[in-house]
Write the structure tokens for this entry.
Amino acid sequence: MVRTQIQLTEEQVRQLRKLARLEGVSLAEAIRRCVDRALPDPAPRRGALYKRAATLVGHYRGRDVAADVAAKHARYLDPPLD
């Protein structure tokens, strides 16, 4: 962790202390949680994406029909418009 110093208004500190008490955590943890909620979610790691994709393999009907997906993936991903 990185130690940093910030200035908060008295009202912000009051509300943060109240939040920390309600959640049963330290003031520092309450602040970290607020910062986490304000920041965008980090991009998932490549390994997590592969693991998620692997859980989907074989779960859909028509596996026998689409046996050529590896070779003709464009046909399935970008079908021609009528």
Q: What stands out?
A: Residues 50 and 56 are 10 Å apart (CA to CA). The mean pLDDT is 83. Residues 10-23 form the longest helix (14 residues). Residues 46-77 form one domain.
